[in-house]
Amino acid sequence: MSKNEKHPGLGELASTSICGNDILSSVLYVSGIAIGVAGVYAPLILLFIGVVLLLYKGVYREVVESLPVNGGAYNALLNGTSKKVAATAGVLTILSYVATCVISGKTAVEYLHTVVDVPVIPITIVVLGIFAALVISGVKDSAKVAMGIFGAHLITLIVFAGLGLWYITHNPTQFQINWEGTQDLLKDKELITLLFLGFSASLLGVSGFESSANFVEEQKRGVFKKTLRNMTIGVVIFNPLVAFICLGISKIGEIKQFADFLLADEAKIVGGTIFQYIVVADAFLVLCGAVLTGFIGVSGLIHRMALDETLPMWFSKINSKGSFPRIIIVFFLACVSILLMTGGKLASLGGVYAISFLAVMTMFGLGNIILKITRPDLKRQYKFPILFVILAASATFIGLIGNIVLDFQNLMYFIIYFVPVIAFVRIYMFRDEIVAFFERTFKNSPLLHSITRVIFKDVTKGKYILFIHRLDRLHSTLKYIDNNETGRKVLILHCKDPEDTHNDEVWTELQHIVPLLPKAGVFNHLTLELQQIEASFGPQAVEKASKKYNIPKNRIFIGTIHHHHKFDYEDLGGVRIIV
């Protein structure tokens, strides 16, 4: 199979549109949030956030191009640390998608409400339901819709910027008035505090940047780095520019009052009622496009987590369109519940989103650093300096703290959702230990013992393949499986490479050592089987082993991929790097 046949997925325009609808939809509300906290300093802060995003472009590119599998921060940490740490990042990402879908859907209806009297909460639920159904119908069809929405949004933003700048040149006094208004904000706090809180609140403007990493498997080879570049350019240009234009049109007090649908109000001033209707229509569509992005991104993430057994495989049932209806339906219900719980308050929803999203971004930065330390020999397409990675992770961590300081209730809403979800994931991950506990507890009760066996009969039956090339890695790889997986059957495979005579020595030693491990009490609860495969290690060996032993590739574990290998990680089909 050629590379092109292997990656027939989404191109640059389609992938950028899916991500761009999310990240550039934030233009419609982040200016109001930023100006409300930081006054005239908002454009400067938003420009600085563009620099932070530029750093994260390098952070994401290094990791995802090396490990191009759906999951974002989850996948980075899964291949660099343990499954427990990775699962935490996965839960945080799911929560960020819940919040961003609800924020985008609700804000879309708020814009619509400025010209049509509709009930906001019920219509938001309808919007969420429509896009859930669209994603269930297939991601390719969804991408076509996203492309149309994104193109219209770019045109609308360009026209808004042009009219806004023209208006400011003919009405230059408003910015000076707002400068004086910002001095009133400084009466209650120091400038450094104002900038810190403004920076923290304004980080909501980069929401969606993580989306591309969560459906990278659906993209053509080489497209991912282009989506990062395109999103960064859009944020650096439009977020500061729109904030500057708004400060040149309206007073800070008015901006804060109409923050939920700010651009509709400003559009009427600079372009009249007709242009207001155009902006409202655009806002409604692009914010709905952000909802679409959330559903697509979370599908890829949860499917990946289910394959790795951090969530039940029940979620991974796929339909004829290649979508995961169970994931979408459960996610839709989660979105509706948080919408009803918060009453649709943008500040509360934004707080939940900011904490989860910024935690994910920070953990991705940490994942990059961990991969540099624990997987130094991993074959990389691109390397980003560790100093810049540290700066990027520090910036989002500071923003995370700032969002908690802004409103402590944000943390409470976040905890209400995070704790039950992470508890469910932990229970599922440790289900083998739970089974053992129940079996010990009910061993004297035949009926309860039998019920436990029936309910959890397949828990420890998982089987894994471990490719071994170096004998000194045998203990560490088996220890990883023991600590992170519930299955107890491990097939140790050694590749017989006719060009590598050292391999024969390793095979001989493996034949001697592996049978002794259970006898010596080392991993004696694991069932170890040793086999040799007639092939050099690479995509063909992985494919052959997966088919021969009927084991999915995400349950195939390897050491690492070095630069001398003629293949890349993505050629192996999603195996896990554990050493």
Features:
5-stranded parallel beta sheet; mainly alpha; 67% helix; disordered N terminus; 3 domains; Amino acid/polyamine transporter I; Rossmann fold; 5 strands; 579 residues
CATH third-tier fold name of the largest domain: Amino acid/polyamine transporter I
Just name the CATH architecture of the largest domain.
Up-down Bundle
Report strand order across the widest sheet: 3-2-1-4-5
Question: Roughly how many Å is the radius of gyration?
Answer: 26 Å
- Which residues sit in consecutive blocks of at least 5 with pLDDT less than 50? 1-7
Give the integer mean of the pLDDT values.
84
Which structural class matches the secondary elements?
mainly alpha
Note the beta-strand portion: under 5%
Identify the CATH class of the largest domain: Mainly Alpha
Number of helices: 23
* Major β-sheet profile: 5 strands, parallel
Number of domains: 3
Please report the total strand number as a whole number.
Answer: 5
Order of helices and strands: HHHHHHHHHHHHHHHHHHHEHEHHEHEE
